[in-house]
Every structure is written in C-alpha cells, then in structure tokens.
Amino acid sequence: MSKAIELNQDNEVLRWHLSYLLSEQDWLSIINLISQSPPLLTAGNEYQYWLARAYEQTGNDSLAQQLYSQLAEHRHYYGFLASARLGRAINLENQPIVVSADTIANLLRRPEIMRAYELFQLERYYEARREWRHLQGKLRESEQLAMVELATAWGWHDRSIFALSDMGMLNDVDKRFPLAYVELLSSEAHKYNVEPEWALAIARRESSFMPDAVSPANARGLMQVLPSTARYLEKRRMSSRQLLNPKLNAKLGNKYLRYLLDKLDNNVVLATASYNAGWRRVKQWVPQSGTVPADIWVETIPYKETRNYVKAVMAYKQIYQTKLADKSASSNPSVFAEFSQLQIGEQT
Asked: Is the pLDDT confidence value at 25 over 70?
C-alpha cells in the first residue's frame, strides 16, 4: 500500500486509484488512500465526499456527518449527494448580481449594444454575438454585469451564462440556470413522458440555450441533435438547418431521451450517460452480475467526458427541479434523494 501511495502524487493516478477501490468497494483502503495522499490533491469535493462515504460504510458516522455537512453547504454534484445522505434540502447559494440603473442606462446609449440587440431580434445570432463580444472586451466589470442584466431581460440567455462564467461570478443561479424555452421544452417532454427538469438540464449542458449551436461533430441546436439521430427518429432525411429550429430540436431531443429510456429500462442515469456516449457503449459499462450504487457507477465511468457530463446533468436537473417546484408550488422527491438510493446492474 505504501508504494501505491507514493505513486499518488499525480491527480490522474490518484483518481484512477480511487476509481479502482470504489469498484471493489474497499472502504478501508479508500480511507487510507485519501488520508495519506497529498492534501492539495484530496481537498476537493470529490475526495471529501468519498472519504465521508467510506467513513459511513465503516461505521464512523460522526466523521461522515461532519464531512457531509460541509459539502451540503454548497451547490454542486457532491453537495447535492451529501444533502441527500443527510436528508436535508439542497442549498442553491443564490446570490443575484447587483447593477445600478444608471449603468444600464449608460450602456443602452452605446451604438454597439443596440446593433447587437437588433441583430439578435432578427435571429442573426453570429453577427449579434460578434458585436456583443467586441463591446464586452472594452468595458469595466460593472458595465459587463449590466450587459448580463440586459441579455437576461432580452432572453439572450447564452450571453448571460457565458459572461458570468468567464467573470467567475457563479452564484446568480437564476441567470446561470434560466427557465429558457421552458414552455417549449416542458411541452415536448410531457409528450414523450420525459421529466421537464431533465430536458432543461440536457439543453443547458449541451448548448447553454444557444439555438444555433453547432458542435465539431455537427450536433445542432438547443439539445444538440445529430442529423443522423434525427433521420433515425423521424425515418426521413432532415437538413442540418432544420435542426436549428428550436421547436423541432426540442421535439427530437425529447424523443431521443424517450428512446434511450426505453432502451435502458427507464434509468435516467444510464440514459444521461448514453446521450453523451451512446447507449451501446454505456450498456458495456453496466455490471453483468449484481448491482452497484449509482454514485459509485458514475465515478467509475471510464470516459472522463461522459463521467463529468453525467455529474453536470444530474446537478443541473436538481437545480431545475427546484426552480420548477418553486414556480408551481409542487413538491416531488429530490433528484438526489432518488439517485442516492439507485442501484445500477443486471436489474437495469
């Protein structure tokens, strides 16, 4: 074990080692690994959560509760997992940005901002973003925040999302996770018996609600639908341009989510991974005998991109479930309360 610890001076090696021990559910070795590895590598949320899980599994409830409580104070995947294990409501840490009316009024006098607005209204998104970025680079932080306020008011949500991320201002939850296209996405989700909060989370992760988004793989629109996927679902050829239509894209994205659920026994975690990596590949990652807890399964996904994708979508889904519940005064079991009880394996 000491030789293995010596190797864990590199974050990727340490993460691989943790993944292996999780696959074995060797909780004592997980405690030793995290406790004896460099604190600079293990101070992050991922390792603190798994240290708490290991303490819980080995009967040290006091230390587990302490670590869970620290994680549960924050808005992230592991914080939501910790909240579920404590039976607590999640903490969104929502802190809206504050911008003066004078700053917004002065910004509206800039010809560049009005050109960007007019181009946006004409759905000439590429040119609108070019005007926007050109002006943004010349402004002070307070003026950039005023641009965020304007973009949100105009329904130009991708500009708000990217700007706040670039500025490191991550706690204005309403602007970073807007209910963009909510009527459209919810309507299409209901048609295919898909949870609206999941459809919103997928669209937020895939395109940040940019209707003209195009990936290097030619996935298109709000939910990043591939032309080949659209052709398969609709049994007819569709042009790449058609997929940039938000209504059609929302329909096809939700129809594809339904298709994946049908392939995977309605398991949202597996279907989420499949939206990124393909359901045939994901089926290969499911244990052929026995089951494992869903949090362990996610942590041991062999593709880093898919692993991070599932964590992001599940966290976004929780945020959107909370926002939709606040809007409708409904109360469903939290996403992570269900997730923390889910088993992945031969029964899925």
From this structure: yes
User: pLDDT of 313-339, one tens digit each?
Assistant: 999 999 999 999 977 655 567 899 999
**How far apart (Å, rounded) are the C-alpha atoms in residues 172 and 162?**
12
Answer yes or no: are the C-beta atoms of 186 and 199 closer than 8 Å: yes
Is the separation of the CB atoms in 325 and 343 below 8 Å?
no
Q: What is the pTM of this model?
A: 0.95
Distance of alpha carbon 46 from alpha carbon 296, whole angstroms: 12
Q: How far is CA 107 from CA 102, 135, 149, 342, in A?
A: 8, 10, 11, 50
Q: Is 206 a catalytic residue?
A: yes
Q: How far apart are CA 263 and CA 348, in angstroms?
A: 10
Q: Which residue has the tokens 């994901």?
A: 282
Tokens at 3, concatenated: 């030789």
- Block residue for tokens 């129809």: 255
**Cβ atoms of residues 178 and 152 within 8 Å:** yes
Which of 131, 188, 206, 299 is flagged as catalytic? 206
- For residue 217 the two structure tokens come to 């793989």
Taking only the tens place, the pLDDT of each residue in 182-207 is: 999 999 999 999 999 999 999 999 99
